[in-house]
Amino acid sequence: MSERHDARHKVNNMREEETESILGVENRSGTQDFDDVEIDELGSYDTNGKQSVVEPNRAINYSHYHGKRPARTDGYLPGFIHGHVWTYLIVLIASVCGLFASLILAAETLQLARHPNSRLGCDVNTVLSCSTVAESPQAEIVKFLGLSFPNAFFGIAAFSVFITLAVIGLCNSPVPRWLATCTWLGGLAALCYAYWLSYQSVFVIRALCPWCLFMMFSTTILFMALSHATVTVQNIPRNNRHLRNYYRLHYDLMLDVVWLLAIIALIIFKEGPALFAV
């Protein structure tokens, strides 16, 4: 019994040493609390303390840490909401919604080009009017060789790219860090573009396009989820403790709700009862 106890104690010590070497744990008192972390890099050991069969799905026994689990240094956060499935699923849904709105806007742009005096289905009143926004100069800000390109066409291209990248993320396929960084920058550019168009619609054109608003909210949610995935899944920037705590403590959810409510309140405050006038 004594020999078996000594062998088991030796195995536990070896596991502890290898765990600390893999995770870069400085000391046991400096470890962080994570609720559901499981590390799969270690294999099993025989009674002589030698590593025998590697079992990738074997989790570490953390009982010898006295309730403290070593902090992972790869940006991992426990919980389904921080995983690649949830974050990139939100990116995918928001991208599909944005693509759908872009297709509708592109079809309505073509309808106005063929029938300039036609009334669109989203022309509700003088404030909620897609045709008023579509006929404004801001609807075609890109011009090349005398040709004008409607904004909706760029939306179709951009959201198609985001859908492709979201599917790659859902499959948990590894991507270069530069590609993940460029994806986030692309989401930021799309957000700024959507907000600029919304600003022009509310304060310059003084008319609101329902499909444009829908696309703007889709772009906002896409950027929120993409930022979440960039930090917790792609670990960009690398090992940023402040950003990880920001998502681990769910501060992002509170900020996202306030963000969306602020946009809705601004629109209602600016237009008021005219939104619902017939």
TrEMBL record:
**InterPro entries given for it?**
VKOR, VKOR_Actinobacteria, VKOR_sf
Membrane-spanning parts = 85-107, 152-171, 178-197, 203-228, 249-269
* Keyword annotations of the record: Disulfide bond, Membrane, Oxidoreductase, Quinone, Redox-active center, Transmembrane, Transmembrane helix
Disordered: annotated segments: 1-27
What does the UniProt entry say about where the protein is found? Membrane
Q: According to its UniProt record, where is this protein mainly located?
A: membrane
Recorded GO cellular component terms are:
membrane
How does the record classify its membrane topology? Multi-pass membrane protein
Q: Which superkingdom, per the lineage?
A: Bacteria
- Which CDD domains does this entry report, sorted A to Z? VKOR_5
Q: Which GO terms describe its molecular function?
A: oxidoreductase activity; quinone binding
Q: Where is the Vitamin K epoxide reductase domain?
A: 84-230
* Pfam families, per database record: VKOR
**Cross-referenced SMART domains, in alphabetical order?**
VKc (SM00756)
Q: Does this entry carry the keyword Aminoacyl-tRNA synthetase?
A: no
What's this protein's family per the entry?
Belongs to the VKOR family.
Protein name in the entry: Vitamin K epoxide reductase
Look up and give the organism this protein is from: Bifidobacterium bombi DSM 19703
